[in-house]
Amino acid sequence: MSAELTAPLAPSKRPATRVRSLVWHLSMLAVLAVVLYPLLWVVAASLKGNADIITDTALWPQQVTWEHFAGAFEGLAGIPLWRFFWNSFLIAALSVIGTVASSAITAYALARLKFPGRTLMLGIVIATLLLPGQVMLIPQYLIFSELGLTNTYVPLVIGKFLALDAFFVFLFMQFLRGIPRELDQAATIDGAGHFRIFFSILLPLLRPAIVTSSIFTFIWSWNDFMGPLIYLYDMEKFPLPRLLQSYANSEGVANYGGMMAMTLLSLVPVVLFFLVFQKFLIKGIATSGVKG
Do 18 and 111 fall into the same domain? Predict the structure, then answer.
């Protein structure tokens, strides 16, 4: 009897389910269109002439031109394009190495070792997350200027080697807290010291945290504009974000088409880097330690 009563209701639920599914997918497509519209506009602008970028209201150009990409590959002010890519890659690579090394070691000390003032030091590290970076711009510039380190990459990467990114220190600490302390105790019984415990036992287990922090650091360093704008003034040392600003001021004429083309070219390494390490990033965010 119950089967006979419920059987006629099943077909009536299917149209409602299909309608909800259709509305959901249409809503997601609308959100996706809004999110991707700026990127589509940049692509279209890079294929227009400089005059058409300002005057032409149509999204897609009536006449496609590749002159902006040709000019971008030639470089700027006699400096080849590969030089700017190399500058960005050098800054990003040093930032990744410094952030991972310093954050992992600092997190190990704060999460695993017991020493006087550890709680106070941990509170100071966490408190730096609430301090805006703009507050330190002037004092830092004065210090590096007095040391003669302006127009070098030192101000851009030295903080990475000193564990000044509290977010990544906290990230490594969360992963370390998920690793059983019995591993440390067993290694200590076998005669291993802190150096051996960290590099031989804990560091391999921190791979998700290492990959996650490396991806975020690489993207943030690659896209950093404020630091190079303040400390670098020699065009041969410019990374790509600083180069984009030069397109707007070159000879007093804004080369919007060249700027759009260079923007797209600068996005290619970041997108490729993310696609290669995407699965590690998802794993690092989804987990907070080792699985038993």
Answer: no
Q: Is the pLDDT of residue 253 over 70?
A: no
Question: Quick one: 61 and 107 in the same domain?
Answer: no
List C-alpha distances in Å: 182 to 76, 106, 152, 188, 203: 58, 21, 46, 10, 15
- Within 10 angstroms of residue 264's Cβ, the number of other Cβ atoms is 16
Structural domain span for residue 182: 70-286
Domain boundary among 68, 97, 112: 68
For residues 67 and 217, what is the distance between their CA atoms, to the nearest angstrom? 33
Task: Determine the Cα–Cα distance for residues 16 and 147; give it in Å rounded to an integer.
Answer: 70
Q: Sorting pLDDT into bands at 50, 70 and 90, what band is 290?
A: very low
Mean pLDDT of all residues belonging to the chain? 83
Q: Per residue in 141-170, is it b (16+ CB within 10 Å) or e — as a string?
A: eeebeeeeeeebbebbbbbbeebbbbebbb
> How confident is the model over 202-234, as pLDDT tens digits?
888 888 889 889 989 999 999 999 999 999 989
Residues 86-125 pLDDT 10s = 999 999 999 999 999 999 999 998 888 888 888 888 888 8
In the chain, which residue ranges form alpha helices assigned H by DSSP? Answer: 2-6, 9-46, 50-55, 67-74, 81-112, 118-127, 137-146, 154-157, 166-177, 182-189, 194-196, 203-205, 207-222, 226-231, 240-249, 256-276, 278-286
Q: Which residues are paired to 57 by β-bridges?
A: none
Q: Is 76 helix (H, G, I), strand (E, B) or coil?
A: strand
The predicted model scores a pTM of 0.81
Last residue of a domain, one of 68, 89, 107: 68
In a domain, 261, yes or no: yes
* Residue 291 within any structural domain of the chain: no
Q: Which residue has the tokens 């080697």?
A: 161
